[in-house]
Specification:
CATH class of the largest domain: Mainly Alpha
CATH superfamily of the largest domain: Butyryl-CoA Dehydrogenase, subunit A, domain 3
Structural class: alpha+beta
Number of helices: 19
Strand content: 5-15%
CATH architecture of the largest domain: Up-down Bundle
Largest sheet: 7 strands, mixed
CATH topology of the largest domain: Butyryl-CoA Dehydrogenase, subunit A, domain 3
Length: 572
């Protein structure tokens, strides 16, 4: 099997994002670990070389261990034995190999036995793992829960729990309840999970039920629970750490899912489960889970891009080999157009993913630096800017990457025809795995609700103006002109929506407005990348021409819509 990193030059291209110098310098705190740990980098070049070598290791494991195990894991799946989860044999092997390679707890500081890698490198690893097996991403990738512990927990909790990740501890976010779904403010409104404090033992005890918990029977779980009696909103919720050391939490069942079948999605029953409070009471949802959401959206974005890549490669390989009417089907316009669009969507969503990972990395890193010294005025301004960008970019990453994953998987099966529908090829598994990406961690519709703020407050338009300032190769000036027209159309669409002076009108067209902005942003990122990559010169043309037509249609629909039209949709 190939190495999933070295066989895809686009990954090394994105690893060398122009923002990486700033990120690495902040992450390494002036390379202060270089004399403490023999694996700490001496300088920026040394750090980048280290990231590259580790990505090669991740790529090798993905290509030669995880991918070959994917079919058996999909078939066998996890089981409940004595009220606890037992992974499929292939999942256990995957996890052990990553553990032995020191690739769990990648982003944690070295004092906790981590690699101190930036978020971009961790996100790239998640893309690689997903290309091999999207279900395993939901086990390996949840190590990012460690970042929440690192960011918000007490020193005592950090010292106790963070070193365990390097020895293979698994993690889970235990948020959703049977009646709450994505409305996390509703947690325990109807008597589900509660947290009660016992002064004598200085311990919190959790009681109730959680449902749809990915990797629910993990070693270390972050649990959102209602800690304040007589409350009914987000201010009554706190975040807790549960350590699986007893039978205080049992697995009632593993859900029988359409896809990602190797990842156990559990219904859990908490009975006086001892837990530790993370941070301050009442801040569980308002601060900690909301912070966790940016990383979670990035994680699903990486999963979406990995699935896009996997689907495209399967379709491309088949199209080159399959002959009809005396020639390979890739020579037919109906097929090569489909493949080119799949490739363009993969490159565009990957560009958005790693740009957003840099924004998220930077604002978080400035937060860590501020705990050690006072930030300079320009640093505070940058931190504020990057946080605003992360807040409006993470929902569109999740939206576009997950929707593109579904579209690419659908189109890839179409390229293979009847063969794609058979289990002889991995595409039917990829197709099933992709479907969840636009649902969990907030549906596409909820991502639009989060992203529309960037339309309302001008955040997307402001960043588009920043992208417009960047020089591009002269041969692509015609595409920059098209992006300029698309931006004018976007501004017109926003004005038309706001002119109705009716919030329902804006909400009705929210997805169209967000997608118009996203298409322009990804178009600019493709053009900027074309300065450094011949591949992007080709596919930026495919992407921008295609999305320009889409944006024209969206503007026309918005312009032609009346409130009477919207009323017609409400008659269901």
């Amino acid at each position: 099997m190939p190495n999933f990193y070295t066989d895809n030059e686009d990954l090394r291209f994105h690893l060398n994002n122009p923002l990486m110098k700033k990120i690495v310098d902040l992450k390494e705190m002036n390379y202060r670990d270089k004399d403490k740990y023999d694996y700490a980098p001496q300088n920026f070049e040394d750090a980048m070389d280290s990231y590259d070598k580790v990505m090669e290791i991740v790529g090798d494991i993905c290509g030669n261990v995880v991918a070959p195990n994917a079919e058996s894991v999909d078939k066998d799946g996890p089981k409940v034995v004595d009220n606890h989860v037992v992974y499929a044999k292939g999942t256990q092997e995957n996890h052990e190999v990553f553990r032995d390679a020191g690739l769990i707890g990648m982003s944690l500081p070295r004092k906790y036995n981590g690699l101190n890698f930036p978020l971009l490198a961790f996100t790239m690893s998640a893309e690689l793992v997903t290309r091999a097996d999207a279900g395993f991403t939901n086990i390996w990738g949840l190590q990012d829960c460690a970042e929440t512990i690192h960011e918000f927990a007490s020193e005592e909790l950090k010292d106790s729990f963070l070193p365990r990740f390097s020895t293979g501890a698994t993690a889970a976010m235990s948020l959703t309840e049977p009646d709450a779904g994505s409305d996390l403010q509703a947690v325990q409104l109807r008597g589900s999970i509660s947290a009660n404090y016992d002064k004598e033992t200085d311990t919190w005890f959790l009681n109730g039920v959680k449902r749809f918990i990915t990797n629910g029977d993990a070693d270390i779980s972050l649990v959102l629970a209602r800690s304040e009696e007589a409350t009914s909103d987000a201010r009554g919720l706190s975040l807790f750490l549960y350590d699986r050391t007893s039978d205080a939490v049992v697995v009632r069942r593993i859900e029988n899912k359409l896809g990602i079948k190797g990842s156990p999605t559990c219904e859990l029953v908490y009975t006086n489960a001892p837990a530790k409070l993370i941070g301050d009471r009442k801040m569980g949802l308002i601060k900690y889970v909301m912070s966790l959401m940016n990383s979670a959206r990035l994680g699903i974005g990486a999963q979406g891009v990995g699935l896009c890549e996997a689907a495209y490669r399967e379709a491309l390989s088949y199209a080159k080999e399959r002959e009809q009417f005396g020639k390979a089907i890739i020579e037919f316009p109906a097929v090569y157009e489909m493949l080119a669009i799949m490739k363009a969507k993969t490159l565009a969503s990957r560009s958005l993913l790693y740009e957003t990972a840099c924004y998220t990395d930077l604002y978080k890193l400035y937060g860590y630096v501020s705990k050690e010294r006072k930030l300079e005025n320009d640093e505070r301004a940058e931190a504020k800017t990057y946080q605003k960008l992360a807040d409006i970019f993470t929902p569109i990453v999740k939206l576009f990457a997950s929707e593109y994953a579904n579209q690419n998987a659908y189109d890839a099966i179409q390229v293979l025809g009847g063969s794609g529908y058979m289990k002889d090829y991995p595409l039917e598994r990829i197709y099933r795995d992709a479907r969840i990406t636009s649902i969990y961690e907030g549906t596409s519709q909820l991502q639009v609700v989060a992203a529309i703020r960037g339309v309302d407050n001008g955040g997307y338009l402001a960043q588009i103006r920043e992208y417009e300032k960047q020089e591009i190769t002269a041969e692509l000036n015609d595409l920059k002109v098209i992006l300029g027209k698309m931006t004018t159309q976007f501004e017109e669409a926003v004005l038309l929506s706001k002119a109705q002076d009716n919030r329902e009108f804006i909400d009705f067209h929210a997805r169209r407005l967000v997608e118009m902005a996203g298409n322009i942003i990804m178009g600019h990122l493709m053009l900027i990348n074309a300065n450094r990559s011949e591949e992007y010169k080709t596919y930026s043309r495919v992407f921008i021409k295609k999305t320009a037509a889409e944006n024209r249609d969206k503007l026309e629909y918005i312009a032609d819509t009346t409130m009477k039209d919207i009323e017609a949709f409400r008659q269901n």
